[in-house]
Amino acid sequence: MSKKIIIYDDDTDLLEVCSLILGAKDFNVVTKDKCTEILNDIKEHSPDVILMDNWIPDIGGVRATRLVKDSDYFRHIPVIFFSANNNVNELAVEAGADYFLQKPFDISELESIVANAANKNSV
Amino acid sequence: MQPQITSDIFFTQRIGEAESSLQLLQALPVAVYTCEMNGYITMYNKAAAVLWGREPELGKDLWCGSWRIFRLDGTILPLDESPMAIVLKGKIIPERQEIIIQRPDGSKRNVISHPRPILDSSGGITGAVNTLMDVTERNIAEKDAANLVAIVQSSEDAIVSKTLDGIVTSWNPGAERLFGYTADEMIGQPILKILPPDRLREEPTILERIRKGERVEHFYTIRQTKQGKLIDISLTISPIRDSDGRIIGASKIARNVTDTIIARKKLEQSEERLQMALQATQLGTWDFHPLTGELNWSEECKKIYGLPPGQQIDFNVFSEHIYVDDRQYVETAIQKSMNPSGTGDYDISYRILRFDDNAVRWIRAQGKVYFNPLRQAELFTGTVVDITEQKQSQQALEESEQRIRLAVEAAKMGTFDWDLVSNDFKSSQRLNDIFGYQGQADISHLNLIESFHPDDKPVRDKAVADAPEKGSLSYEARIYWPDRSIRWIKVFGKIIYGNKGEALRMYGTVVDTTEEKKTLKSLEENEQRLNIVIQAAELGTWELNLLTRELIYSERYLQILGFASGSCPAHEVILMKIHPDDLDIRNKAIKEALIAGFLDFEMRIKPTPDTVRWIRSRGRVFFDEKNVPWRILGTTMDITEQKAAFSALQASELLFKTIANVSPVGLWMTDVNGKNNFVNDTWVDWTGIPITSQYDEGWIGAVLDTDREYVLNVCKKSFETKENFAVEFRIRRRDGQVRWMLSEGGPYYTINKEFSGFAGSVADITERKQQEMQKNDFLAVASHELKTPITSIKAYTQLLAKTYEKTDNDFLKNALGKMESQVNKMTKLVSDFLKLSKIESGKLQLNSETFNLNELVHEVVDDIQMVSGNHKILVNEDTPVKVLADRERIAQVINNFLNNAVKYSPDNKHISVKIEHADGVVTVSVTDKGIGIKPEEHDKIFERFYRARANTNTSFSGFGIGLYICAEIIRRHNGKIGVTSKEGKGASFYFALPVID
Hints:
The structure holds 2 protein chains of 2 kinds. A 5-stranded parallel beta sheet of chain A has the order 2-1-3-4-5, with helices on both faces. In chain A, 46% of the residues are buried. The longest helix of chain A has 16 residues, at 107-122. Chain A is an alpha/beta fold. Chain A has 5 helices and 5 strands; from the N terminus they run βαβαβαβαβα. In chain A, helix 3 (60-69) packs parallel to helix 4. Helix content of chain B is 38%, strand content 29%. In chain B, a hairpin with a 5-residue loop joins strand 22 and strand 23 (551-553). Chain B is α+β, with helices and mostly antiparallel strands. At the A-B interface, helix 1, helix 4, strand 5 and helix 5 of A face strand 5, helix 23 and helix 24 of B.
């Protein structure tokens, strides 16, 4: 069964290209340009992995990730934090994310990190 | 799910592929190596071995082939925390991380590490591959450029460049502050905008000189700000040249000197006033400058000393002409006046030997010492007047007084003989006479005793009672004669003792001293009158009868008060000349004088309705026998000029204080031990610490706890080396706000070149700091916004490339490849942009340490040799030497010399480096056989914005700042930098530093 991923980013072009890349890797991709309803989104889609941008309406990636990681039901879901901020690694730690990815990235980086994260969750 | 691979053929294929990629890896100029999942190195290429400076053992060495690695802050990074180790151990892949690799030979390289995990089919980590990019050179170039940008941006001076047509091409924040125009308003505009209309002709002259390649230095002129205000500025203008050495424009540094010029003008004016005032007084005046030993006398003063006008004078000549017996006395008085803990007042009478006739003269000198903020006597100035006549008359009076007393005593002495046992008292006729019983023989002792004035009887009784124990009797008292007239007597007695020590008798004498008392009184009055006569030329004299209110006065007194000579104004009329505001002063002074016995006060008068003058009145109050004041004898002097002179002096002092205290920056000074002894009001205002608590190290109380140690260390260090320093720190202001401060200071010396301490300023740089932070925030946001679209572009490009991986369309493949490489270039540009912005200050801060210079030279040479394999660099040296310097900065200089040598000698590949040591100085020179430099350019190449003629394309150092920064670094080390060269015959660049034993 293919794995499911929710991608949060306010740049719809990026959502589209990521969908194409990960769809080709047999991922079931859900995209969101807001993170306001993140807990409902998770309830609805039960993702295996989440890709979260930093600057995203309306509560921002750090707080959205915290919501996931503070939830007893969802904290096991790996979150990959990705951002164009130079201190993306610090932001990832602050948010409690499991992985980080610096924008711009090589698509091979994206593929391997998402695969790795999705795989970890299943174990 | 991946398909299971079982075919042998497939394996063979894979091995073949692996072998060819291995060959490719070996040839790559980028360092690459792999580790298996436990961290053991399984493969590395040639470039990696070169970078590490060693060849690690496969399957035995862990994590990284480097001998040692460091973080960027210089701390050691344990190998098992290296980026590679983290990838293999941790979950989170580190950001591309810059680390420093040290080779076994000690040399260091900056490297960006990109470790990537190797994942198996299930996504588990089976190992990792790491590429290492050497970024050492890039960092150095970045630093050079950032230094220049920061120097220009942070300069307090206006730095402007313009074309030869006078069109502005750059305009820094200093220029914005000084002239009021923003860079946007000025760039592209003629520089004439800031010239006042009457100075427009200056510009062609300046440009003319620039075209000739001349520098214009410290040119004082006037410019006009945007607000129309005229400001005094000092200009330094240098030509800017292009790569061919042609002059294409000018860079101009302007400094606002308005405040300095105003202050100087005011000082000159106040000094002039002082001179005039002193010449107007009729006293001799002098001033002495203890710090320099300079002594000046006015012409009047020279006259008093019997010197011809124009004669030079110094302290020794002055000292030698003090009458020998008075020399010690005068010296002590001078020392006392110059004592900083005293009042600085000087008032002394002594004798001199006049220069021309060697006559002994009495003079009176009065003066005051002025201290500088260091509590050193800086100026000692005052007046002198000849008082010989006054002294002589005083002596004459004293002598005559003696003679009178002797005569009186000899003539009119009564005697007595008193038997203390039987109380039998016998008095002589003379004694009876003295008591007013002329011709009467039998006057009882009791009668005599009853004659004593009631007020004086206790004096007599006590003297008599004490006499047996003291052995003698002595007192003076008033008696009543039978006719109730009062007489003064003086009594002396002597006790005769018995064998057992008991008092038996007293013999004594009595003299009538009434006349003597009167004479003395009149003598005192005479003395006063004499003084008055002597000083009549200067002083007005007067006598006020307190009973009749009658005032008798001298001609001079009338003159001072503005009356016609020969006129005879009544007391009431005279009182009307007193300035109405000062009447109270006069009345109060007289009232107090009646108690104290002397009068001394200053007040204003109006000799004519339109003029105001200052006078000083002194006087003595005379009391009658009932101790009732009955008259005052006094003098009055016009002191308007002295007042003016004194207030001019005060004004000078005040001016300094005012300048210091209204200064927008804090000012401070220390003594020779580095203890603070002056801060201005500005600093006191900021910190709210009272001035008395600022001294010594009290000022540090204002500095935030976290910054204190750092600040004190910087101060201490520069104090030890007597070098200028600049330090940034935070203070808590009086209102609780935390503010950023920049303190800059340096040693200062007396005229005799003696070190006197440190002096400096403290500026509030909070706004600048905030702007810096805002700028960095802005750049961070801007770079984020730039990266966001790049992310999508890059992803699409790669996706396209992947999609068309197998296409036959070469154009499409090629185009996609180019797109990707351009996107990567853009990414790098954006992140470099951000790195530049992070450098907050371009000020060269030296971190000096003692190190082996020869080792450093070898390190740098090895680095350069590695990248410029075509050139042969030879090092010539004798015994190694140590220097105290900033190792990294000196490396930068050597690096720059070597890079230039490589760059400018494309045809002859031999470069020699020489380290020579002589007379405590080590000289490092780098010599090439390249294109060389024209002699007239030798000095210029160390200037900002200058670039030697070159055909090579421009790089960072192409901005012409590399050698400028080298020169700056060497200057900061108090070293020497220079070049010797002939065009076409190569060049030899050198620097010299002091050696540490």
